[in-house]
């Protein structure tokens, strides 16, 4: 098991398989380490499912956050409509794992990928923002002899945003091209509001809401182009502004077709499942009063390997282990050498990271020494998960003596 860096040196597959029964102490695990709290994940999955039900929308969580079959299945069991992915390879993983509905929140314009995915297009939705992209899909699927049409969502963008047609006129051209192809099906509209703002200030929220109103108007304008049968999808919503998505678009959610064409409003929030102690803690709607707050489920653990100066501590985890792209980790406490309980570490602050070291500034009189272990709160879980092939799970991060319960494997290629 040495290929899993969170597993004790010398551990065998049988040792790891016994963790759910043996429940070893977290204090006995090596560092650098990242742990996932089962109690926090269960809270977050249930909280988001209940929020979506109350808001009158459905959820296809973005699976790229974790790329974990276990966590995806937990989200699906809680009522998620399907799983969203970002790349053709991720789509192939999801389809291979038996996910019933997969949304590729991206253009699919690689002929080889289209040919490979052709047998499963009945379970797949993709995005498109160009007539050329539609032609590529049409030609590749026609050549592959696809027996079912591929559902295509017309992507609307905005100036300064990411992908997406920049005008309603351009989006309508894409929709007409899709409707004209016998191997494609016009399945709805899609967009990503998170590229247009990066905080929850009034100006940002106004920008987001205006964009979402435009997305809804595009869906309304496509009425005559939609096929006569089957439901259509309106999808938006990362992990930062899903409350605005529900507020602006939920009135169109009508999967039973009681008010006309069956329409499903889908959120794609993904980071909620583990939340964080940084970016999402500050911007999530559930941190801004929209509902029950989420809990950070992911934590880093690093051993003090040096205290070369009174106010400087060096830890044995770095950029190869912990996310740093949306803020540096935060020091949350210290576990003394040979102990299991976490104690406060006031005044400690991460100031820099190298590949395998983290620089921790501490007060000169701080009680922290070589061999102690520091717990780190992390920002942006997506770029921590992809650094670990297996993440150790613990029963509850709030326990004074967390116990190891298993290993969640990831699939990032």
From TrEMBL:
<dbReference type="Pfam" id="PF14031">
    <property type="entry name" value="D-ser_dehydrat"/>
</dbReference>
<dbReference type="InterPro" id="IPR042208">
    <property type="entry name" value="D-ser_dehydrat-like_sf"/>
</dbReference>
<protein>
    <submittedName>
        <fullName>Amino acid deaminase</fullName>
    </submittedName>
</protein>
<dbReference type="InterPro" id="IPR029066">
    <property type="entry name" value="PLP-binding_barrel"/>
</dbReference>
<dbReference type="InterPro" id="IPR026956">
    <property type="entry name" value="D-ser_dehydrat-like_dom"/>
</dbReference>
<dbReference type="InterPro" id="IPR051466">
    <property type="entry name" value="D-amino_acid_metab_enzyme"/>
</dbReference>
<feature type="domain" description="D-serine dehydratase-like">
    <location>
        <begin position="297"/>
        <end position="395"/>
    </location>
</feature>
């Amino acid at each position: 098991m040495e290929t899993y860096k969170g597993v004790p040196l010398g551990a065998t597959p049988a040792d790891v398989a016994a963790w759910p029964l043996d429940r070893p102490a977290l204090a006995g695990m090596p560092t650098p380490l990242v742990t996932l709290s089962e109690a926090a994940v269960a809270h977050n999955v249930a909280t988001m499912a209940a929020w979506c039900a109350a808001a009158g929308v459905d959820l296809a969580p973005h699976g790229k956050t974790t790329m974990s079959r276990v966590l995806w299945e937990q989200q699906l069991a809680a009522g998620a409509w399907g799983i969203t992915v970002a790349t053709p390879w991720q789509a192939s993983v999801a389809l291979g794992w038996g996910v019933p509905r997969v949304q590729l929140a991206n253009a699919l314009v690689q002929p080889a990928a289209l040919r490979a995915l052709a047998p499963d297009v009945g379970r797949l939705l993709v995005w498109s923002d160009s007539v050329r992209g539609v032609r590529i899909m049409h030609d590749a699927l026609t050549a592959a002899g696809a027996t079912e049409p591929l559902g295509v969502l017309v992507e609307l963008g905005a100036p300064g945003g990411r992908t997406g047609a920049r005008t309603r006129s351009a989006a309508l051209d894409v929709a007409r091209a899709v409707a004209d192809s016998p191997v494609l099906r016009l399945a709805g509209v899609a967009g990503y509001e998170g590229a247009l703002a990066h905080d929850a200030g009034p100006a940002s929220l106004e920008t987001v809401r205006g964009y979402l109103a435009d997305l809804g108007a595009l869906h309304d304008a496509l009425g005559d182009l939609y096929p006569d049968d089957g439901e259509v999808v309106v999808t938006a919503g990362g992990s930062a502004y899903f409350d605005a998505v529900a507020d602006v678009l939920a009135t169109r959610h009508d999967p039973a077709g009681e008010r006309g064409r069956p329409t499903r409003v889908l959120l794609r929030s993904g980071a909620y499942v583990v939340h964080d102690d940084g970016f999402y803690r500050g911007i999530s709607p559930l941190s801004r009063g929209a509902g029950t707050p989420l809990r950070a489920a992911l934590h880093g653990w690093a051993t003090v390997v040096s205290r070369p100066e009174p106010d400087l501590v060096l830890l044995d985890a770095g950029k190869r282990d912990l996310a740093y792209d949306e803020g540096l980790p935060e020091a949350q406490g210290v576990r003394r050498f040979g102990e299991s309980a976490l104690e406060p570490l006031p005044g400690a602050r991460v100031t820099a990271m190298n590949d395998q070291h983290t620089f921790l500034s501490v007060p000169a009189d701080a009680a922290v020494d070589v061999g102690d272990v520091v717990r780190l709160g992390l920002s942006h879980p997506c770029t921590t998960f992809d650094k670990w092939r297996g993440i150790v799970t613990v029963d509850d991060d709030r326990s004074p003596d967390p116990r190891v319960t298993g290993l969640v494997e990831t699939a990032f290629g």
